[in-house]
Amino acid sequence: MSPKKILCLFDVDGTLTKPRLAIAPELDEFIQTKIKPLCTLGIVGGSDFKKIAEQMNGEDVIFRFDYVFSENGLVFYKFGKEAGRQSIQNFMGEEKLQTFINYVLGYLSKIVLPVKRGTFVEFRQGMINISPIGRSCSQEERDSFEKFDKEFQVRKTMIEALRKQFPENGLSYSIGGQISFDVFPHGWDKTYCLKHLEKEGYDEIHFFGDKTEVGGNDHEIFNDPRTIGHKVTSPEDTKKQLEKLFDL
């Protein structure tokens, strides 16, 4: 009887790394030396490839991990080569896109936060990332906004307003990380990457993620019947769960 063909698929922020920081060398080495010989490795993140590469200690991540799905798999690399690309611009069209972005900027101009910085709307290949505080804030300001948001639900309230304003746009909203949320067409959450894996013949796809609650950007893929979901609380917890899974 041949061994099972297993893929371990990881979220980045909060799972392999602390939010927006680089993966710890110890965890990186553990995955490459202890886990890679036992299964195929994949990463799926909402960020673009450049940000994922920064957090994973270099663009050679496409060789260290067998699959790298940036922007939830809208852009993806397989065994070191780009293998697919899709765009929200093509999906929505420029007119709808600008109407949406203009509303977002108007909304953000009216809310008052402890601080505001820059880059409130980041246009990506497969999504729009919206940050009420602005993505150019410092790590200290990130941490502070995360606490503020837990108390005052800034992101959640804004999402409710967008759903009400654009009920027919076919858009989904997902809160991930500390300071922002993602906007993308229905079905373009992290389950999008599974389309690329359906014909690859894996017996088991184990997904590891931290934002698995309703509204979190790992929720859909964590609960998808095609995956075995593992909820983690930190990179250290990811390591513990891998050790348990593979009896190390």
Automatic annotation (TrEMBL):
Keyword terms of this UniProt record: Cytoplasm, Isomerase, Magnesium, Metal-binding
Subunit-structure text: Homodimer.
Organism of this sequence: Asbolus verrucosus
Active site: D11, D13
MF-aspect GO terms: metal ion binding; phosphomannomutase activity
Pathway: Nucleotide-sugar biosynthesis; GDP-alpha-D-mannose biosynthesis; alpha-D-mannose 1-phosphate from D-fructose 6-phosphate: step 2/2
Full protein name: Phosphomannomutase
This enzyme's EC code(s): 5.4.2.8
